[in-house]
Amino acid sequence: MIPAIETRGLCKQYRHVTALSECTITVPQERISALIGPNGAGKTTLLRLLAGLARPTSGEAKMLGDIPRQHPAFLAEVGFLAQEIPLYRRFTAEDHIGIGARLNQRWDAAFVRDRLRSLKVPLDRAAGSLSGGQRAQLALALTLAKKPRLLLLDEPVAALDPLARRNFLAILAEAVAGDGVTAVVSSHLLADMERVSDHLILLAESRVQLCDDIDTLLAEHRVLRGPRQSITAIEKSHTVVQATHTDRQTTLLVRGNAPVLDPAWESDEVGLEEMVLAYMGQDAAPTEPHLTAVGEEQ
Amino acid sequence: MTWLTWRQYRFQLGVAAALLAAFAVVILITGRQIAATLRANAAACAAGHPCRDVAGGGLFMGSHVIGFLVIATLSAPLLFGLFWGAPLVASELDAGTTQFAWMQSITRDRWLAIKAGWLLLAAAAWGGAISALVTWWYSPGVALGLNQFTPGHFDLVDLVPVGYAVFAMALGICAGTLLRRTLPAMAVTLAGFVAVRVIIVLWVRAHYLSAVTVTYNVLQGYTPRGDFWHLASGVIGPNGQLLPQPNNMNYFNSIPQTYLPGACSNLLGPGTSNPTPACARALSHFRGFVTYQPADRFWTFQLIETGIFVLIAAALLAVTALVLARRDA
Question: In what order do the strands lie in the sheet with B212-217?
Fold first, then answer.
């Protein structure tokens, strides 16, 4: 089975800023991939490149084997929802359903209507007069109604309250399980996505830090604790992702399955959040204060 | 996509239709009155009554307001460019709705072609309708010798307003695509439209076809047939030099006083008008000339000018399509 998404050396350079650098990832089909990274890490850029809304400076992306291009066959397979929740302000939900019905070969109008009714989002009011959450629900429903095989959602739950988040993620999980859909859903918080995603793409500083099935990633990483000591020996056999030293103890997050022979180290499994935070905090200048706080705790 | 375009623009199209209808009513009422006045004056002349100038005092309604309104239709194409053209792509880029529209199963080329196509058609139709009304309104004036080539008349009637409307739309669409914001695009559309129109009127239009120059005997004179476009005229002296024509001087058949041969000195005196044989011999070395575009080139000029504006519009739309396809949404 060809991968849902495969990129090689994808780069996006704006005038003076590198938004995405050397991005090489593979996402197998029928995954929900959490695209995690601090603000400004390049999540939106990556999604826009995959959707074909932006063109890469170099490198290439393949979506189900197809390079993003201006062709109805490609566009029909890819659903993209931008973070800004673009909707026509003066158009009602019904109007938007009408647009979708006329511009797509596949279109599930009933799905949108059912979903909006169950969420009590009015179908006959201008999108501009809906609340932020209602607009997000409308835009999400419209994106799903297109029935794409690849869903690219940029911070879709940011505008939703916790209950609506849970509800939406359940719908998403259902869509992926039932219809052979692959979704890449970005968020700057892992907590949003942890429950539903089985694949992780971690971006920081415009680079891919991690990209694999979550189970695989967890199996590859370990926490080592031992008395305070030099880590040069460990570095020969493992990649040290993060090292924290206190007066007495050294704690390491390492990648690699090679055995640790030195009995001074006590090896432990790593939690998903702990691993993600270690990678995010690894680069200089974490953008979000709470990440720094967690890092110091360790 | 047609449906989406209709939904997006139906209000504006409605407003435009209402304005056009109001304009039509004014033009039809005043136009009929003009024609009636003209017929009455002509009948009075024929009947030998004290014959006023056929055009009469109040031919164009004696109403400067209506006259001004008709002249103001010069700017109608610009309005299409400003309010339909400039926002066509820019407002969607600005609001981010391109990220919605372009992620449906329709290519950007097609999206642009259909949306711009319908609005170009609408602008052409409205421009054509206004032009038809104005042309009809002016027809009595043209019959009375209002020069058909006069800037401000040529530009208002027949085919060219359609070309201007298409051009203004394309300019607006292209500027909006390049600048990505509606207001700056409107400013560029305004400046660009006025600049191109002025350049064409002042420096290009007279050269669509090479002008005809006729030289003639100054004693006989010459007037081209029909409603021609006068470009230049004057007198060439015996040494082949073009005679200057200062304002504060007496003339005989366009020959300034100071250049008249000695034998003709009596011509400018009071009460004399016929040159002596000696004078006539001297004057045979002077040639009058007139450079002009013949009257029957009116439609050729209309077609050429329309063609120029349509071609510029096509180039602008090609640039738009190219930029949309290549640049990020």
Answer: B212-217, B287-293, B229-236
Q: In A, which residues are within 8 Å of B112 by CB distance?
A: none
| Mean pLDDT along residues B299-315 | 97
Pick from A199, A108, A192, A187: nearest CA to A148: A108
What is the C-alpha to C-alpha distance for residues B65 and B182, in angstroms, rounded to an integer? 32
Which tens digits make up the pLDDT trace of B274-284?
Answer: 778 888 888 88
Q: What are A45-69's pLDDT values in tens digits?
A: 999 999 999 999 999 999 999 999 9
Please tell me whether residues A87 and A174 are part of one structural domain: yes
- Mark yes or no for CB contact B99/A82 under 8 Å: yes
The token pair that represents B138 in the structure block: 């002016």
Tell me whether A88 touches chain B (CB under 8 Å): yes
Q: Is some CB atom of chain B closer than 8 A to the CB atom of A51?
A: yes
Name the region of A276 (left: φ>0; alpha: ψ -120 to 50; beta: rest).
Answer: alpha
Where in the sequence is the domain holding A222, given as residue range(s)?
216-297
The model carries a pTM of 0.88
User: Measured between CA atoms, how close is A102 to chain B, in angstroms?
Assistant: 7
Test mutation, A103, A135, A155, chain B, max B CBs within 10 A:
A103
DSSP designation for A82 = -
Q: Distance between CA A63 and CA A68 in Å, rounded?
A: 7
Q: A199: exposed, middle or buried (C-beta count within 10 Å: 0-12, 13-18, 19+)? A: buried
Distance of alpha carbon A196 from alpha carbon A230, whole angstroms: 39
- Looking up residue A70, the CATH number of its domain turns out to be 3.40.50.300
Bridge partners (DSSP) of residue A239 are: A255
Q: Answer yes or no: do A112 and A192 share one domain.
A: yes
Angle CA A48–A51–A54, to nearest 5: 45
Look up the ipTM and state it.
Answer: 0.85
Contact B99 A75 (CB under 8 A): no
Q: How far apart are CA B287 and CA A243, in angstroms?
A: 103
Q: Residue A210 falls within a domain, yes or no? A: no
The predicted model gives A194-215 an average pLDDT of: 91
Same domain (yes/no): A133, A264: no
- b/e string for B199-220 if b means 16 or more Cβ within 10 A? ebeeeebbebeebeeeeeebee
Bridge partners (DSSP) of residue A244 are A251
In this complex, is the C-beta atom of A203 within 8 Å of any C-beta atom belonging to chain B? no
